[in-house]
Amino acid sequence: MAVNTTQLKKHERMIFDLRAMYAQYGYTQFKIRKFEEFELYVRNKDFLDSVNVITFTDTNGKLMALKPDVTLSVVKNSRDEAGTVQKVYYNENIYRVSRRSHMFEELMQVGIECIGDIDDYNIFEVLMLAAKTLREISPKAILDVSNLDIVSAILSDYHVTDSTRIEMLSCLGDKNIHTLRRICRENDVTPGGIELLEKLTRIYGRPETVLPKLRTLLKSGALEEPALGQTLQAVDDLERILNTFTDQSLRDMIRLDFSVVSDVNYYNGIVFNGFIRGIPDCVISGGQYDRLMQKMKRKSGAIGFGVYMDRLERLLEETPEYDIEILLLYDETAKITQLNDTIRGLTHEGHTVVAQRKIPEKLKYRRLMRLTDGEVTEIEADA
Fold first, then answer.
1. Which residues are bridge partners to 187 per DSSP?
2. CB contact set of 217 (below 8 Å; sequence gap of 6+)
3. Which candidate, 276, 241, 270, places its Cα nearest to that of 257?
4. Which tens digits make up the pLDDT trace of 320-329?
5. 187 vs 160, 165, 190, 241, CA distance in Å?
6. In the CATH scheme, what architecture does the domain 5-316 have?
């Protein structure tokens, strides 16, 4: 039976359309249980947005958790198969502390994951689907893209500790130049190195404008080999992926922003955040997470993204004009067969119908009909 999407709520129509789009590109639906062993999240707690997880003890004594994340479950249930990729999409409820209420909520998350022998096309395809997803949500959208390999190569040239590197990444992500400068000085980063990071943080714009400036900046003398070669190679990789965009409307959405950073213990390569006008937080977040795969003893690479449906609540709010299209009134003389035939005929025509003995309070309906002696009459015209 075909789905009549006009009868779905706005967020339901969006999920339906996104699922159809992902399926067009060979992504199949991934279904999982509502819970996983708590140990999965303990081992990868830094990968999660929040360390708060709802737990319970199963009948076998194992500590279980309502899933706060989908990606970890997808990785756990996928397999390494040389020369192939597994492409899945999901729309699953997750259980985490909401930014809005600061309490545990059941939140809908939609997304895709591509796992296996990842190549340039796979990276482009996921990035392209992220842009198309944003466009499906709103025409006023921006996709901020970065390459963590560039930032990682620069920081490796400074020979700082892992904890200091994480602090510096956090400053980059927050565009906190003052604290970044202090950390650099405390760790004997050269003035040229400090200037490089500051300028990298400020660079923002369309790829065709930013990439030439970025190459000039990297060749300014602040980096030595092998970091210089690694960063320039990462720039070439990024440019090659972005040049694959032939749809100008999608390309126009892309901005390069090297303050888009993720935990380098889990992520690598291309990472991105998607924004739409009117919502302060990103509504899409994703990227390559080969390091998570390695941490979970996997040989495959991976890339994907998630759509935070809870952050779209205000955008997707809608006040329906009617609760039901047709309110059908009947009395005690109506035969059940007549009532059934009438309702079946109206629903077959595509109408939504509710049958009642009297008009319910506060019910908003578009048309009012009455069944009397097997005949249907319309009492009230379209309001």
1. none
2. 196, 199, 200, 203
3. 270
4. 678 889 999 9
5. 7, 10, 9, 35
6. 2-Layer Sandwich (3.30)
